[in-house]
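Journal club prep — side note

Before the paper discussion, L.F. wants everyone to see what a predicted structure for a comparable chain looks like in token form. Sequence:
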Amino acid sequence: METIFSPNHRLHQSPGELLHDGYVPAFEKPERAELVLARVKETGLGPVSPQAHYELDSILRVHDAGLVALLQSAAAEWRALNRPGCAIPFTWATRGMRQDRIPTGLDGRLSYYGFDAGTPITPTSWQAIKSSVDVALTATARITNGARSVFGLCRPPGHHAGSDHYGGYCFLNNAAIAAQKFLDGGASRVAILDVDYHHGNGTQQIFYGRNDVLVVNIHASPDHEYPFRLGWADEIGSQAGEGFNLNLPLPAGTNWQGWSQALETGLRRIDVFGADVLVVSLGVDTYKGDPISQFRLEHDDFTRMGARIASLGKPTVFLMEGGYAVAEIGINAVNVLTGFEGAPRL
């Protein structure tokens, strides 16, 4: 399996500490991608290739132009105000506040488009954000050109970013951009399978009213886990999209037995849907040692996961999302990919 990778991911690095349950280390850091890349090479998974460059068109098919502009300019505007550090929101929109006006000032726009304090915009973040999208689009092109499977080693991740909001370490939604690119390239139906511990709220929001993209999320219950405001089982899509969003929330402490049952439910739904291509939002923070997650998957479970995903027999692009047990992230991510590659071809 080919891996698409950009060293530009290193241009986005959060400050040493971020607001998370008070005051704790920032978990989303460059070492994550570097360790996954090292494991890809160590196992001989396949060639590692650079990303191609794409214009903004594919991004703007999914994301609001105002959000994209903010991500490009926020750090420079922040510095122009003589502020140290990174650009972050001071407030967030909530019930009773107007949603029909976008403030013109920087702080107002940050509060309008951003939904948490853990996703800072640094002076070089945009280069990393754009390169992450380019990784996803390059991987997508490989599938369009006939590859059975490709791994896009995206960083920053993307599945918490919605059409007009960012947060959760995510700025632009790589999986959604890839899915739309497949549709624009001639696919009739695309399925997105999100196996990250945290619900892919942004992906759900983007496609919630559509029936050409099936979104399946296996994740921790939003009653207790981020992002808290989306991810319940009764969210099934709206209007044309009703029945095309499947949430499979699970309790803390879930191990492979419980998690794999949810996976089988999701795979059956994808099979019935009849997707032309599958996009996997590959988060490996379901691992038992992840510092901010509460599932109990073991290393070998990720290999089983990959093999079961392969049973669909779909052209599949894997795009990297979460996983914060840094020492083990490479093992777990690559186990999914080798499990997929080692499964019988249908």
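L.F.'s comment for the group: Residues 2-54+125-342 form a domain with the Arginase; Chain A fold (CATH 3.40.800.20). Keep this in mind when we get to the figures.
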